[in-house]
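FW: tagging you since you asked about this chain on Friday. Here's the raw sequence from the shared folder, copied in full. Didn't touch anything.
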Amino acid sequence: MVMRNIHGAHAVSALKDQAKRFETMSVHLAKSPSLAITQADEIAKWSTKLIDAIDKIKRDTKAAAIMCQQHLHSKIDEFKTQADSRKRRILDTQELGSSRTLRANFRLIFGPARETEYSSKSTKHLMSTITERINTIRGLCDEYPDGVIVLSIGYPTKTWTEPVSEIFEAISRLKQEKLEKWPEEILDIMNELRNERPMSAEFEILRAKISERQGNCRRRMQEPYQPVADVGQPVPATNNLDAPHPPGQANPMMINEQNLHDTARISSSSRSEPSMMNSGRQIQYMFSKSPANNIGVLGALLANAIRTSNQWKMEKAMNDHTTECLNMLIPKGRHEDVSITLWVGQKEGLQLLETFQLQPTWSELPSHPPPLSQSQRVQSVSLHV
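HL: got it, structure written out here
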């Protein structure tokens, strides 16, 4: 007897059709007693053969399913072993080696979707499946950023986009990944990609989470600017930022130079008295994290300008209920002014210069660079109260 290989879906369809036929079958035997007995014997004989054939199909398909499952588990274990090995090497050396996998994954997961005008039905189905998986990965960025990084560096794109859903389900169980200190190169690559193409809001969330882990969140939230300092004697950035401080109060640390480089300040304060000059001015405290809904108190003009800043947009994308667009610098001297710094959008910031008729003033220290040109001014306005 020649055996025919039939696709599983076709076999299911054929068995369903036959089962329905037999369920509705009603047998009428011949009127002749001898012929009726012969027919009954034939029916019993072929029924037995049919049952045997069905039993064989059941045994063969069950064995094939077990083998397929074992092969799948073996494949998943192999992928995980390779990913774990790559992860350990990167963490041990703090070097990515090749960034090809990471870049490809970031572009596909967080980059703009590719629209194809003409696609077959199977291609459209595959693209729909990949889109669902991309959304699943994006949903992990806020709570499980380390898991997303592990997937991005350890699993090539072709691995987690395979049609086999079990492989992706196994790979996407990344909630158990512990917190890690990832190489700075990952953040550098993320900066390159966001300049290369528009990236999703989840990408910014992931970037902020990883950057904050390394203590560089504020420095990397903006593109690097020309450093312009406003204080006479900045304290080195090696201060102990982790020292405990009173509850309900911002960390009473000396503002390091990098934080001051993040904003070029344009002052409207009067400088008529020598004691009010910037030289010798030393900042002791920094107050930030204002409730976002308090920004409206500043009035519509400043509030709208703040809402156009990159910092504000990033915080809203992260569903943060506080904002660093409003900062207060408290000086050590009891008779010195408090500095309030507002982060606003580039265009709106330049408009505010004309609206408030602010005049740029700069520190007289020789070590400070000259003021930026009009085109280089950053989105920061500082008012003294």
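FW: The mean pLDDT is 74.
HL: agreed, and The beta strands are 283-287, 290-291, 322-323, 326-331, 339-343, 380-384.
FW: great, closing this out.
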